[in-house]
Design goal:
Layout lengths: L1 E6 L3 H12 L4 E7 L2 H9 L5 E5 L7 H11 L4 E6 L4 H9 L4 E4 L4 H12 L4 E2 L1 H11 L4 H11 L5 H11 L4 H8 L3 H15 L4 H11 L12
Parallel strand pairs: 1-2, 1-3, 3-4, 4-5, 5-6
Helix pairs in contact: 2-3, 4-6, 7-11, 8-10, 8-11, 9-10
Length: 225
């Protein structure tokens, strides 16, 4: 079972998230918190695999809690709940090691998918959140980042670029496999190879690199093989 802590200052939201997550037979919500400090304290004692944190909470906000969890419970993977109006917060959370980002209007199945991905060590970025982060990054230094990103992609094969482009769109391994007519296991192998070649720690970093390079599904940048 994947043991989840849900932190949000609104009881009704917590109840809704609990109902969605516990509908999956491999997920159990073992703790709830109304603020970031309470979330850190409940995760500190162990027994939590994934923490789902709202950014806007009293006493201690989700971003501060993310940093504190990194110190107090480093094995806990953290998913951040956000809205379209919080671009800077999303970028800060990414920098502090968040395992994924979900918009509050995400579909129930996406929430379950994100928790499962985080539990096995994968970073999760929903398609909408991928665009959200990419748009925020594009405001400054886009030309310089794009050139650097395209240089890093030069060592990828055509198929690796196709997989990376779908990561840039926020697709899971299963969804990417369906698009490319490949098995999920094969896509996972490609993702591992891509992360190694690009020296990326996780899927989120690779996805942002793909966006910086302008890599699009069905289209390759100059220099692709």
């Amino acid at each position: 079972m994947i043991r989840v802590l849900v932190a949000d200052d609104e009881p009704l939201i917590r109840a809704g998230i609990r109902m969605i997550l516990t509908s999956a037979d491999d997920i159990d919500v073992v703790a709830e918190a109304g603020d970031g400090r309470e979330a850190v304290e409940k995760a500190r004692g162990g027994g939590v695999d994934v923490a789902l944190l709202d950014i806007q909470m009293p006493v201690m906000d989700g971003l501060t809690a993310l940093v504190e969890l990194g110190r107090a419970a480093p094995k806990v993977r953290v998913l951040i709940l956000t809205t379209f109006g919080e671009r800077d917060n999303v970028l800060r959370a990414l920098g502090h090691g968040g395992a994924g980002f979900l918009l509050k209007d995400s579909a129930p199945g996406e929430l379950i998918q994100a928790v499962r991905a985080a539990a096995v060590g994968n970073a999760y970025l929903s398609p909408a959140a991928t665009r959200h982060v990419a748009d925020a990054l594009s405001a400054t230094g886009a030309t310089t980042r794009g050139e650097a990103a395209r240089r890093r992609l030069n060592g990828l094969t055509t198929r690796e670029r196709e997989v990376l482009a779908l990561l840039g769109e926020g697709l899971s391994n299963a969804d990417a496999g369906r698009r490319l007519h490949m098995s999920e296991a094969t896509v996972k192998t490609y993702v591992s190879r891509i992360l190694t070649k690009l020296d990326c720690d996780n899927r989120v970093q690779a996805a942002l690199l793909a966006r910086d390079a302008g890599l699009q599904p069905g289209g390759l940048q100059p220099g692709g093989r």
